Structure prediction request, 233 residues.
Amino acid sequence: MTPKAVILLSGGIDSSTTLAIAREQGFSLYALSIDYGQRHKIELESAKKIARAMSVERHLVLKQDLTAIGGSSLTSNRPVPKNRTGDEIGRGIPSTYVPARNSILLSLALAWAEVLGSSDIFIGVNSLDYSGYPDCRPEFIRAFESMARLATAAGAAGGRLTVHAPLIRMTKAEIIRKGFDLGVDFSMTLSCYDPDEKGRPCGSCDSCLLRKKGFREAGIEDPVPSPPGGLFP
Prediction:
């Protein structure tokens, strides 16, 4: 029987490449996207396109509104940082950090995995080219995996639960090359934190800048047009 995996799918480069990696590893794909009130909610449309293109068994979109909690420029009207340098992006925790987001997303993925009888969850976190989020670190992934084994009926019965983070130690360029090799259609992806009403990227938020840097270093042309913005060396 083909093993099932729950893959957190946001609609960006990292989660799309992670979905392709799970497919390459022979899993039956169950994609999970979360509408948490993010200002770039249009990313969910990208997730739907990617899920269809990769022929997932099911794509579940859950609503978990985090705007009432706030605390992030992605779930409020606070401005999104723009045109930061590489040093600035790599230092400190920016306002785009959503409190406990990956803990919440992984918990929802864990709940669905239990219902599906799945022992495998995939998440596209990265600890190299990222904006300083504490819940993208390897220590967090391992800690959540340990907690999950204690907190579930399957774990209490001696079942195995693995949280796969295949991109955790890859640069953005390496992720893009991997996705390209696996046939990911990056024209469907959205990385911007602050797109316009038509879903066009701003070109200068941290996520846009990291995307530009990644494609440039990968030597691959980004199929998604982006306006000029600061690009650190």
